[in-house]
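[job 4471] stage=fold_predict status=RUNNING
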Amino acid sequence: MKLPKIDKTILVHLALFAVALIYGANYTIAKEVMPLYISPSATILMRVLGASVLFWILVGGKRLVLSNNREKAILLLSAIFGVVVNQLLFFEGLARTTPINAALIMTTTPLLVLVVSAISGGEKFTFLKGLGVGLGLLGAAMLISSKTVANDSSFSFAFDFNLGDLFILLNATSYAIYLVIAKPLLKKYSALSISKWLFTLALPFVLPFGFSDLGTTNFVEMPTEIYAGIGYIVLFTTFLAYLLNAWALRSVSSSVVGIYIYLQPVLATFIAIALDKDSLTPTKMMWAACIFLGVFLVSRTKKETKKA
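[job 4471] inference complete, writing structure tokens
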């Protein structure tokens, strides 16, 4: 029996939803894996090594010929900020905080991209942009410093500094720097080739952090579900999500992809609560609203600038 042909637009949106779902589930899955069974640094080493091998298999040994030494320096810095610092901070942060907090703080990335771009002279601040960045970073700062109690039915303003949340915010900052500095390379060269070399160049940097921990990890007594979790992080979060995103970007605008990015914390929250791994308190909801309002104001001003 001949199967009906599915419209490509539907497939693209299914791919984008799958990416959001993969990233959303990663917060809870990675939290189960770390740090009880394997350290964050050992997880990162496995992730970078696994991704490097998979990208080499996919892309092959084709050389990436860059135009000048400046582009080579940018590629190296992109590997450091986009893979090494970014992933070390993310997994070290996630090991110390909750899945919902991490997912919410990560939505500040567009705000931080604007700040980095403005500092480098790529964007100009307006009043609304400044207000949006201020609100978003206020929400993130309060999530980092506010003590949240599970199943609490009231707002909480008690302060209890969370190092894990701060690591997640610094991770988002590192990723924002990567997005700004790597943009010229990603526009000029193949995204797959750039990604292959980003992970390859990052490998020597993460090796000293994770080699010792990986050697002392007790894989013999590790439960099957933890093996599956590690496989998920390497294969789905690192490799498959990127391929689906890259394929979808060929058919839709980056603004459409952006909509699905903001779906990630919603899915992460739903998954964490459904599996009883985290709770959504009124305090978290209030500061999350600050972040989303800030992102909305920044996104709105960008659209108005393009129209003008």
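[job 4471] summary: Residues 8-307 form one domain.
[job 4471] exit 0
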